[in-house]
Amino acid sequence: MPAGALPALVPSLVVHLSLQKSFLRGITTGAIKG
Length: 34
What we know:
This is Multiple sugar transport system permease protein. It comes from Lentzea fradiae. By secondary structure, the chain is an all-alpha fold. The termini are far apart. Helices cover about 85% and strands about 0% of the residues.
C-alpha cells in the first residue's frame, strides 16, 4: 500500500462511518415512529 494513499483514505473513511451512523439512526427512528 502506497504511503500517500493512507492520508487520502482516512478522511473519506471517517466521513463514511459518520454518515452511516446517522443514516442507520434515521432508519431506526423512522421504523420506531412509523
